[in-house]
Design brief:
CATH architecture of the largest domain in chain A: 3-Layer(aba) Sandwich
Distance between the termini of chain B: 27 Å
Largest interface: A-B, 44 and 43 residues
Number of helices of chain A: 9
Structural class of chain A: alpha/beta
Strand order of the largest sheet of chain A: 11-10-9-8-12-13-16
CATH class of the largest domain in chain A: Alpha Beta
Distance between the termini of chain A: 21 Å
Number of domains of chain A: 2
Number of strands of chain A: 16
Helix content of chain B: 25-40%
Strand order of the largest sheet of chain B: 5-4-3-6-17
Radius of gyration of chain A: 18 Å
Strand content of chain B: 15-25%
Oligomer: heterodimer
Number of strands of chain B: 17
Largest sheet of chain B: 5 strands, parallel
């Protein structure tokens, strides 16, 4: 069950895993996520699905080593099994022919953006993808993105690849240049906050896929709750995608810091 | 049912002691761990009865010709039948009697609100105005005796009929349904969303009240009866009800239980440190967050307030003590009399040092500069007229507001039904509250789908869920044999 069939390093800390999960591969749609757990004392960690191969019965996960659980997952090798894997969870992305869509991905957020870009392209949209990272080595999945995008704009903080600047600079360039109907953004919470602030200025409808803390991931615990348009919502069942302009990103960022100290202190558990 | 009352041994047993003598025996007290010690550990608080204690308590039961106690039991356990077996020392036989009607006697003996059910209808209580027979303690004794004896009887199973039925959820409703259907010869597969079997018995009820080993033993029994369990599989997400149909399942019992926790929608409720009891208990019970080697963290809290007055609130506040809280408080807007929690849980909580702030209702949480909750504002209440629930409703006392320091708040004011099946099955009748609507036979608007437990009741007890499982099994059996 849940055997890892291939593993590829995108960079030192970012790993792409292909995992046997035939039922999930068949049921999943763009935007869905899974919960994984490594080891009998492992925690439940949500990861958005980056792709699936129904015939092979596999799903693709892209993981960045950040804390204990993500590092444990990255340290697994081909042939190893993930202790628990459940999904697909959350609501699928609403796909339609919107016209022109800007897809803005940052860091490993590019991976879950991939199936959305593909679905939007297949639905007839003009898709312009903005990929952003700190530096050249951290830009991932560029080739796959090009296959389903009318244009790919690469932004790096240090200018080592593509254009120098932030993801917002890339998005703004497109908005100023042509009529855009929708923006989809996935990446670190702080990045999505700034993309949202930018597109709000231009009245451009924007969808953000949120990555809050979860425990069960199935709508039972409420750890993932956020405020959208003044109302409490649960990312695991109401999301993970929301109207970015209505999301209280500051509250979300604050809540995501709940266990930061503990996460650092726990890194000794790696390898156990 | 009363025919087994006339068997020779029972008639003889009734003659051995005069009823007057029986009624003079004082009710047994459960052996408990010392309150001071137990508040620091996860060991089970109730230590069970010894054989001698159980046999002595069993003598109190008068073996009434019309056992009113049974009318108080949602699954109509043959109460005098099992108690008299304890009195004569046939403990394994007592367990067998229990298992005729209850799939999980060791669980029910621990978590049923007996004082509101069987024990409230005991002759002692109704007519003698004395303490009722300790039916719950005796049930637990018989079930534990059987398990510990290593001679667990596997119920008789009718020959396999080759019909496949599916169960969604492995909590008390699902397990009791699975047991009954397996007995009838069905091939039963239970699908569970989480990585552990047992539902609320695992993620919700803490170890100190219901050890996981007890639940696991019951699951092993079901496996021996041929019930299959599939973990990490969400019906309505991973597979659909249509997939099940295609796979040859002829009936589906939906027992998917609780869903989203309720919050009060007051300012500051999303501050760090304010969480639902589902989150808190899942972290500690299912994910073992109290164990330093476990990867899942939990905010332990020095000053912990739990909002609510039900069993889950008591479980949460007592868990907080065990996680090291210096101050653990129940904040409840009505008075103690209206609390829905079992009496024993309230008693245990008090013995362990939990403070009860009744007639207080939270109106706001206040955070520090990092967004962590540091205080809560409470509106003082008084009791007014009875409301629809029959309980006196709490009314605000104008201007009576106080503020207390807290660093963890656990909101335990109920849950809404799990939305996954209601949202994913077309044509399924669902109430405004999100519960699945069923007829008297636990059958939904889609004939092959039956439902029970919290997904139908919207928040009830383990025993009611089990009763639903039994009723649904009987109806589905009838439906499939039409």
């Amino acid at each position: 069950m849940n055997k890892i069939v291939s593993k590829e390093f995108f960079s030192e800390n970012v790993v792409k895993l292909e995992v046997e999960a035939p039922l999930i591969a068949k049921a999943r749609k763009a935007g869905h996520f899974v919960i994984v757990r490594i080891g009998e004392k492992g925690e439940r960690m949500p990861l958005t699905i980056a792709g699936a191969d129904v015939e092979k019965g596999t799903i693709t996960l892209v993981v960045q080593k950040i804390g204990v659980s993500s590092t444990k997952l990255c340290n697994l090798n081909v042939g190893d099994e993930i202790t628990d894997l459940v999904g697909p969870l959350g609501k699928a992305t609403h796909i339609d022919n919107f016209g022109t869509v800007v897809c803005a991905g940052g860091g490993v957020g590019v991976a879950p953006l991939m199936p959305i870009v593909e679905a939007l392209k297949k639905a007839g949209n003009r898709v312009i993808t903005v990929l952003a990272a700190r530096t050249k080595d951290l830009i991932i999945m560029e080739e796959q993105m090009r296959a389903f995008s009318d244009e790919v704009i690469v932004m790096t903080d240090d200018g080592s690849y593509g254009k120098q600047g932030l993801v917002t600079n890339g998005v703004e360039e497109v908005i100023q240049r042509e009529k855009v109907d929708l923006c989809v953004t996935i990446g670190p919470a702080i990045m999505m906050k700034f993309v949202s602030l930018l597109t709000k200025k231009y009245d451009l409808p924007t969808i953000a896929s949120l990555n809050t803390i979860m425990v069960d991931g199935t709508g039972m615990c409420g750890a993932c709750r956020i405020t959208v348009d003044g109302k409490t919502k649960f990312v695991c069942v109401d999301g993970p995608e929301f109207d970015a302009h209505q999301v209280d990103f500051d509250e979300m960022l604050m809540r995501m810091g709940a266990y930061k100290d503990r996460e650092k202190a726990d890194m000794y558990k790696i390898g156990k | 049912m009363a025919e087994d009352r006339n068997v020779a041994w029972r008639e003889e047993l009734r003659q051995t002691i005069k009823n007057k003598e029986r009624t003079e025996i004082p009710r047994i007290r459960m052996n408990e761990l010392n309150a001071h010690y137990r508040a620091t550990v996860s060991e089970e608080v109730n230590q069970g009865l010894s054989k001698e204690q159980a046999m002595e308590e069993a003598k109190r039961c008068l073996d009434c010709p019309t056992p009113t106690c049974m009318t108080g039991c949602p699954v109509s356990i043959n109460i005098p039948g099992f108690i008299k077996n304890i009195e004569r020392g046939e403990f394994l036989q007592a367990a067998k009697v229990l298992k005729e009607t209850s799939a999980l006697p060791a669980v029910c003996g621990r978590v049923c609100p007996q004082e509101k059910q069987c024990e409230s209808q005991c002759f002692y209580k109704l007519k003698l105005k004395k303490e009722p027979v300790a039916i719950g303690h005796l049930e637990r004794f018989a079930a534990d005796y059987e398990r510990e004896s290593g001679m667990v009887s596997v119920p008789e199973i009718q020959s396999k009929n080759g019909v496949k039925v599916a169960v969604v959820g492995s909590g008390p409703a699902g397990l009791s349904f699975a047991g009954d259907m397996a007995k009838l010869g069905y091939s039963v597969t239970v699908f569970e969303a989480l990585h552990e079997i047992g539902g609320v018995l695992k993620y919700g009820i803490p170890e100190f009240r219901l050890p996981n080993s007890i639940v696991d033993a019951e699951i092993v029994s079901l496996s021996k009866m041929g019930v299959e369990f599939v973990k990490n599989c969400i019906v309505g997400k991973t597979i659909s009800i249509d997939d099940l149909k295609e796979d040859g399942f002829k009936g589906v019992f939906v027992a998917s239980g609780a869903g989203l926790p309720r919050f009060m929608n007051i300012p500051g409720e999303n501050l760090i440190g304010v969480m639902s009891s589902n989150e808190y208990l899942t972290r500690v019970n299912l994910m073992m967050a109290g164990d330093d080697e476990a990867d899942t963290p939990v905010l332990k809290g020095r000053k912990v307030a739990v909002v609510g007055g039900g069993n889950t609130a008591m479980d949460s506040v007592r868990t907080a003590l065990r996680m090291g809280a210096e101050r653990a408080m129940i904040v409840y807007r009505r008075s103690e009399e209206e609390m829905p929690a079992r009496l024993e849980e309230v008693k245990h909580a008090k013995e362990e040092g939990v403070e009860f702030m009744t007639l207080h209702n939270p109106i706001e949480y206040i955070g520090d500069d990092k967004g962590r909750v540091k205080a809560m504002r409470l509106q003082k209440m008084e009791l007014g007229e009875p409301d629809v629930s029959g309980r006196r409703s709490p009314v605000e006392i104008p201007g009576a507001i106080e503020e207390i320091e807290v660093d963890v708040v656990i909101v335990s004011i109920g849950v809404s039904p799990n939305p996954i099946i209601p949202n994913s099955v077309e044509g399924l009748d669902v109430s405004k509250k999100g519960t699945i609507i069923v007829n008297d036979n636990m059958q939904s608007s889609i004939p092959m789908i039956f439902a029970g437990g919290d997904i139908v009741r919207g928040g009830a007890t383990v025993i009611l869920a089990m009763g639903d499982g039994r009723a649904a099994a009987k109806s589905m059996h009838d439906y499939l044999n039409k």
